[in-house]
Amino acid sequence: MSEIIYEGLFKNHIKNHVELKQAVGYKYDIDAEHLKRFDRFTLEKYPNATVLTKEIVLDWCSKKTYEAQANQCSRASVIRQFGKYLDSIGVEAYIIPKGYYPAEEQYRPHIYTAEELTRFFAETDKCQYCCECPDRHLIMPVFFRINSELLT
Length: 152
Known about the structure:
single chain; mainly alpha; 2 domains; 6 helices; about 0% strand; elongated
């Protein structure tokens, strides 16, 4: 992997943090990439920042519309570790509390009973002709039955 070049005001601290993590045995490639994005973020949004403030951290960690909760938690974890590093070397930094963003609830699948499947297929059979989608009434019943066969 090529060396990542950091450019923002935190560049030396990020570089030193990554080197320390790698020196103690962590691969730290993915987290280094997260920190590169954080570096770009601060360069664009907080170009005069000299301190890792709560405002910067919470802005960086805010949930994006396109991402899962796990991604947000991962980003928060990386910036939390960076904040702890800064604090350990005497640099003022906001450290986001562990568990600040709750983990996503575990997905629990629903297993349909034979009766529920019978009712479901009865409803798909009721699909009627529609001029915007002229073949839907033919495709829907077949599509769902094929998928149900693949699952069994």
